[in-house]
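Data availability (excerpt). The following record was deposited with the supplementary files.
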Amino acid sequence: MTPVISLPQQPTRAVPSRQLVVIRRWLLLFMGCLLLSGLTAFPIETLLAFTLQQWPLGLQQSAPYEWVLKVYKAVAATNQQYPFLAYGTDWLAFAHILFTILFIGAWKDPYRNRWLIDFGLIACAAIPILAFSAGAVRGIPLYWQLIDTSFGVIGALPLWLVRQKIQSSAHGKQ
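Predicted structure:
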């Protein structure tokens, strides 16, 4: 009798459902914005200078322009005299990059790792708390605190949509 030789079978990959594709797209958008936000913290002086150069001429007497100019001057002077303080924004950038990596788990399997979505929503909800409390203590203008707060609100939108889609899938409502 001839022995039967079976060749290893390639694992079959299930085609992701439309729901999973939508979830992953929203997560990629969130992750891309989070990564971009972090990467912009490294060249902060350069980006502030670029922002001031691009500011519309008619709006250069506005309070936001004056604030960005003040921040630029402070960052430039600090970098000139005490460049080691920029290490703090380097760590801020690094944290954003790490959080982006963290969300890869949610992208790979959002149903099993939905706790990451909740984590992100909690982090987004905490942004206004920090912006308004630390902003007031540090003398940040209210309009700028509102801009900072908007990052939490805008960041929460794709995460909330992802959470809703995960919950509807769990209840068979696809």
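Summary of structural features: Residues 168 and 174 are 6 Å apart (CA to CA).
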